Amino acid sequence: MAQIFREDGLVVPVTVVRAGPCTITQIRTMDKDGYEAAQLGLGEAKRLNRAERGHLRRAGVFSQYLREFAVDDVNPLRVGQQITVEMFQSGQRVDVIGTSKGKGFQGGMKRHGFKGGPRTRGQSDRARAPGSIGGGTTPGRVYKGKKMAGHMGNVRVTAQNVEVVQVDPARNLIMIKGGLPGSNNGLVMIRRRGQDEAAD
């Protein structure tokens, strides 16, 4: 993360994202695939098997990451075309999709914000316990979806309606207001709001 001074003097916290350039590696059409989409590739792969090399040979790049995005019209798109950060403008609103940091197995207080049990009157081992998890004879089981201890994080998260503060086409950088899901150097997808076009 970093910070940017606006023209009015306000300091805005931003996350700096290297966005592309992405290459269109495949185009899905209604006639052939039953839906319309474009597959984008990002980065350079170090090792690919023969099937992956054959798939990417038409695009002329051997991308490390491949992601598919639905589009309204595939006619203006072609395999090998570059998608750059110039498709975004300052002040625009976007959605950012990423994978949150994995935190392993966590208890109810950290995972769901439970307040815990009483700290007094002889309660020596109930301070961080979850409390009751359901009835006895009826229903005689724990309902599905009950908030309990378990695996936390490492899930797909979408930060919606975040602001693009600044775009730097020369360095393929986009500065997005606030924090984004995931760890440093993680992969995120940036999607323009109200449209199906997107870029890694």
Low-pLDDT stretches: 196-200
Distance between the termini: 18 Å
Q: How large a portion of the residues is in β-strands, by DSSP E?
A: 35-45%
Shape estimate: extended
Write the H/E string, N to C.
Answer: EEEHEHEEEEHEEEEE
The biggest sheet, with number of strands, parallel, antiparallel or mixed sense and barrel status, is:
7 strands, antiparallel
Number of helices: 3
Binned, the helix content reads under 10%
Total strands: the figure is 13
What structural category characterises the helix and strand content? Answer: mainly beta
Q: How large is the radius of gyration?
A: 23 Å
- What is the average per-residue confidence, as pLDDT, rounded to a whole number? 89
Strand order of the largest sheet: 1-2-11-10-7-12-13
Please describe what this structure looks like:
Strand 12 (189-192) and strand 13 form a beta hairpin. This protein starts with a strand and ends with a strand. It has helices spanning 30-33, 50-56, 108-112; strands at residues 2-5, 11-18, 22-28, 37-42, 65-70, 82-83, 93-99, 104-106, 150-152, 156-168, 173-177, 189-192, 198-199. Residues 196-200 have low confidence and may be disordered. Helices cover 8% and strands 35% of the residues. It has a 7-stranded antiparallel beta sheet with strand order 1-2-11-10-7-12-13, with no helix packed on it. Strands 5-4-3-6 form a 4-stranded antiparallel beta sheet. A two-stranded antiparallel ribbon has the order 8-9. The longest helix is centred in the N-terminal third of the chain and has 7 residues, at 50-56.
